[in-house]
Design goal:
Elements (H helix, E strand, L loop, with lengths): L9 E3 L3 E2 L2 E2 L7 E6 L6 H10 L6 E5 L2 E13 L6 E13 L4 E6 L15 H19 L1 H13 L4 H11 L18 H16 L2 H8 L23 H4 L2 E5 L2 E4 L10 E2 L3 E4 L8 H5 L6 E4 L8 E4 L11 H5 L5 E3 L5
């Protein structure tokens, strides 16, 4: 598969995905979520223009773009020795918005007729679909936005962000060449580590300071709790009070550890008393907002999904949509 997307795969055993009904109907869909915003119409329409030389058949409908790759298989009939050919194809759909979903479906071989003689069809279709995905990302505005995302979220230089994009889209056809800003003279690189080093030295101290400021403990002797059921109360902010914080994250009471932990977060909020630690939100989040936090003694689960990087949330709603007990609520900034 595309190296870029190897950790972002969901196989949905349904024709309905969380962001709506996808037109590529099949029992199995490969869905890849990209942490980039593509809402401006000029950016969306540029995708088809950027792929004109790719050889794909391009279609668009509203906020969705379709790229179809066609190829011909040739072979011999094993019984008659007759030369046969079959025209096959695979389509990738790009659903634009605050995040970009790239979806592909491998149709059954029977869809194209009596092609029983074709060998390794699924592997070829899978490889071609991933080639289309890599080409879309590498050669369009999506790639530009992904480079910007790497710079902001992972603190990479422009040159390194471009290099990473190139490394992670190895199947792209006629790949677009992006140029980084001019590299400083020899003295520049030598001085760069000196500028970065103080940041590295200070970084380990930050968690210690935050930990010292924590006003919420995960341990205690409280027994005032019972099993909680979802969904999270969407109006909890008007009904509860902030009773403390943990590593800079607000905690809304009541809290009586270890069995009653309240609701955590401001924009990315999780009711810890409902959370069952299934991990769906961690897997779904495209920008790695969550990490595990041990909560020994809690009746719901002894670990919770902690919004350690709440400020990185892109409000795609993926975590809220996939949570089985419905313990997650995402609030847009300012709400």
């Amino acid at each position: 598969m595309s190296a870029l997307l190897k950790d972002r795969v969901w196989i949905m055993l349904s024709e309905i995905a969380k962001r709506g009904v996808y037109p590529l109907h099949a029992s199995r869909l490969g869905v890849f979520r990209m942490p980039v915003d593509l809402t401006d119409w000029s950016d969306i329409s540029s995708i088809s223009n950027d792929l004109k030389s790719s050889g794909f058949k391009m279609d668009a409908y509203a906020d969705r773009i379709y790229a179809t790759y066609k190829w011909t298989e040739k072979g011999l009939d094993p019984l008659t020795g007759e030369t046969l050919s079959a025209d096959l194809n695979v389509t990738v759909e790009a659903v634009t918005g605050e995040v970009v979903d790239l979806i592909y479906q491998i149709k059954p071989l029977e869809f194209f007729g009596d092609c029983y003689w074709v060998r390794n069809y699924r592997q070829k279709a899978d490889q071609n679909a991933k080639m289309v995905i890599d080409t879309i990302i590498r050669n369009t505005k999506i790639g530009d936005k992904l480079v910007a995302h790497y710079q902001k979220a992972e603190k990479l230089s422009l040159e390194r962000a471009i290099k990473r994009l190139e490394e992670l889209t190895p199947l792209a056809q006629n790949p677009k060449v992006r140029s980084a800003a001019a590299i400083p003279p020899a003295a520049g690189p030598a001085s760069s580590p000196k500028l970065v080093q103080p940041t590295i030295a200070v970084a380990p101290k930050a968690p210690a300071a935050a930990a010292g400021a924590d006003t919420i403990s995960l341990s205690g002797t409280g027994t005032n709790y019972s099993k909680a059921e979802g969904p999270i109360d969407p109006e909890f902010k008007s009904k509860r009070q902030v009773v403390g914080s943990f590593q800079g994250i607000k905690v809304w009471g009541p809290v009586d550890p270890p069995g009653q932990l309240g609701i955590w977060g401001t924009q990315v909020t999780v009711d810890f008393d409902i959370c069952i630690a299934d991990g769906a939100c961690i897997e779904a989040c495209p920008v790695n907002v969550y990490e595990w936090l041990d909560t020994p003694g809690h009746p719901g689960s002894e670990k919770k999904t902690f919004m350690a990087r709440e400020k990185d949330c892109i409000f795609c709603m993926a975590c809220e949509n996939v949570c089985p007990p419905q313990c997650v609520k995402i609030f847009q900034k300012g709400t």
